[in-house]
Amino acid sequence: xxxxxxxxxxxxxxxxxxxxxxxxxxxxxxxxxxxxxxxxxxxxxxxxxxxxxxxxxxxxxxxxxxxxxxxxxxxxxxxxxxxxxxxxxxxxxxxxxxxxxxxxxxxxxxxxxxxxxxxxxxxxxxxxxxxxxxxxxxxxxxxxxxxxxxxxxxxxxxxxxxxxxxxxxxxxxxxxxxxxxxxxxxxxxxxxxxxxxxxxxxxxxxxxxxxxxxxxxxxxxxxxxxxxxxxxxxxxxxxxxxxxxxxxxxxxxxxxxxxxxxxxxxxxxxxxxxxxxxxxxxxxxxxxxxxxxxxxxxxxxxxxxxxxxxxxxxxxxxxxxxxxxxxxxxxxxxxxxxxxxxxxxxxxxxxxxxxxxxxxxxxxxxxxxxxxxxxxxxxxxxxxxxxxxxxxxxxxxxxxxxxxxxxxxxxxxxxxxxxxxxxxxxxxxxxxxxxxxxxxxxxxxxxxxxxxxxxxxxxxxxxxxxxxxxxxxxxxxxxxxx
Length: 482
What we know:
16 strands, Rossmann fold, alpha/beta, 15 helices, TATA-Binding Protein, 3 domains
């Protein structure tokens, strides 16, 4: 379903562009457009060249910007970029900042699209940072081409920091806001496998270079670092913001901010078939959540699943005791877990399962017993006839004796070593590991004490095993709680 109606209310692209008018105004656009059987003028959205021409013509017609978009760089989606700018306007208006606004754009890209839009729309003073040499040079050209050098400055980032390199002893500049469109993915495989097969195919073609789309640890690690650096420079920026590409990462980052008691808010950026999210936080005395409440398009409301945990024997009925028990079981299942928040009678865990270690527990126990049994059986000499006398525990056994002291051997279709190796492999393997960087299950566990009851609230975030995988983990916890 197209999400245009959920765009920011002031976004001019809530009304789709008039392709007929663009075709008349720009010969370059006319060359890529075509007329369908109904007389409607369309373009091939899957063709990167067509996307570049469309974006270039829209920037010229709607903002009087002359922008050169390199063939090997990301083609900015204007409705999305404008959504971000308009949300920043809302945030600044809420804290009553209206004049001489200054902003920091992290990773400005070859088009320097955010500084250009901010400068022509609002006359904001912008600083754009960039790590890639080619993108930096092209951004300088686009700024000069539009005579916006007075409003836009560029700074090359030669460090591993995200914003710390901006605030040096020689540069004491402060900003009203920072903004960022971070790389979403940690590697090429994650990029290629990021879209669920259940979703409709993307309407637009693929554009962008690896340095624009990929960063070590993906966007989650990038945004975590940004939050860490923001704490070091809380006096230099009024409002920190970033775009987030994956909803489950937004949920994790919100929990990080909550655990640090940092005031924050968030929003949705909707356009076409794509949804992105905006996250803002501040260390100043602004209640962003109430000043600019989260803006989500209407959807089916998520109702968390809540379980009542029975009281544990021989210990107090507290969230601390329940947390220790759950940590113990998660460790046993080799499921990684991190404490995100712990306040009063409420505890939040971030859990990530990369391998299915919870299924077929009875089968695995049987296999383990077989392994233990096989290790106690004496090795058979393959060169000897099985009917020859064999000594077991010091007793003489004649051939296939029925002595009760002798374990029943498996069928001799496999050697003892082969059987043990096979069973060990089956036991250790459990279930296939996730085939890409996406975990099997990523979720929040929340322990809450209400009256004298301990409740386990689960919130599914993501994972190739789906919600069913999460419920299987919870079922294991319920089965083994006592």
